[in-house]
Amino acid sequence: MGQLIRICEMEQRLTSSLEAVRQMEEALDRYQAAQADITILATYLNSDEWRQDLADDERGFLPPDLKRGVLSEDGIWNLLDDNTRLARQMQTLANQLLQTRQ
């Protein structure tokens, strides 16, 4: 491979890597900020309030046009499961990256 081709290829790798790192940093900031909401949702799912809200929905006491994804046990549960899976994936990736940098 010629020198100019190699330099152009490496420049392209640098540019795309910098963009990926920037996007990951922004996503990670949003993800970190969402953790407070996820904790609140987990508490809500295990609360008497959630059970009452679900019962009221089942009795037809809530407006029919009300978004009610939080009353689906699977909705919050799946979010919690996805959150845990993602945390493990990030931990594995971080461990791999840290080992290769030593």
Structure description:
- There is one protein chain.
- The chain has 102 residues and is an all-alpha fold.
- The chain has a domain at 30-100.
- It is 80% helix and 0% strand.
- It contains three helices and no strands.
- It has helices at residues 3-45, 48-58, 73-100.
- Helix 1 packs antiparallel against helix 3 (73-100).
Brief write-up:
This protein is an all-alpha fold and 102 residues long. The chain has helices at residues 3-45, 48-58, 73-100.
Keywords:
102 residues; mainly alpha
Number of helical regions: 3
Biggest beta sheet attributes: none
Ends: how far apart? 30 Å
Poorly predicted residue ranges: none
- In percent, how much strand structure appears in the residues? under 5%
What is the alpha-carbon Rg in Å? 22 Å
* Morphology call: elongated
Helix content: over 70%
Q: Helices and strands, in N-to-C order?
A: HHH
Q: In terms of structural class, how would the helical and strand content be classed?
A: mainly alpha
Give average pLDDT, whole number.
96
Number of DSSP E strands? 0
Secondary-structure map with pairings?
Elements: H1 3-45, H2 48-58, H3 73-100
Helix pairs in contact: 1-3
